[in-house]
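Work through what follows:
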Amino acid sequence: MNLVALAGGVGGAKLADGLQRVLGEDLTVIVNTGDDFERHGLRISPDLDTVMYTLAGIANPETGWGIAGDTFNSLEMLARYRGDAWFNLGDRDLATHILRTQMLREGMTLSAVTRALSRALGVRATIVPMTDQAVMTIVNTDAEELAFQEYFVHRRWQPVVKSIRFAGIENANPGEGAIAALQRAEALVICPSNPFVSVAPILAVRGMRAAIQRASVPTIAVSPIVGGEALKGPAAKMFHELGIEPSAVAVAQRYNGLIDGFVLDQLDAAHGDEIRALGIAVLVTDTVMKSEADRERLAQEIVDWVTRLHAR
């Protein structure tokens, strides 16, 4: 099966890893770049790197981001010089950012850079940034407007969210190969990523939502909310602060009109009928991925399910 996944963050990377284990080269992952930023003169792409490191099998298993066993000598020295080491950059991780920045300055697109880096790390799936243009997720909070990494990492997502916008989105076109991948896909999966800051930027890129809606293949989403809570990150907090009760149902409602199916954790099985009432098929299973075996098992269940949906 040729499948396209939309992903961002640790949860999205975990499911993408499971899907790669099942599908190998037949998987394309379109990744959020709204949280990209510049740090110490280097282009940092947190979600791209989280997905790439995870699919390469080198991600830090404790955090889900960064590289396993990395050291932080460069960061410690930077802190001695400047004292603002709030964004963790490991020594091996730093090599990625240095090379990416150099390649971009030489005129390569972010899509081409991502392909080159992924291949060097032995990633079998194709990773595509949502756009090659600069887009910045801006979080409007009760304090002030904050760039996403300032909100998420430096402020530890404590300010109250009032609204979110994507600066530069009006000039953004889909990353190289993204639309072609969507056109040839036999199924589309929205990974269990934050709907507001991981998935919404991808869908906001010019032509992306329309391409997904035109696809005459099953499109399914996996809930990032389990039992009213996010497994990682600020998604549930954002729902609350934006006046929405955090639940799997709320996630399904956000994607209503875009998806045919919704994967619900067994803890939320009682909400199945409410989601089916939206005209969305439901798969109830264990969606919590604590191990690599969990990732592959969930991915296989999803592939089997979308195969049945495709046959309808």
Notes: The mean pLDDT is 96. The first strand starts at residue 3 and ends at 7.
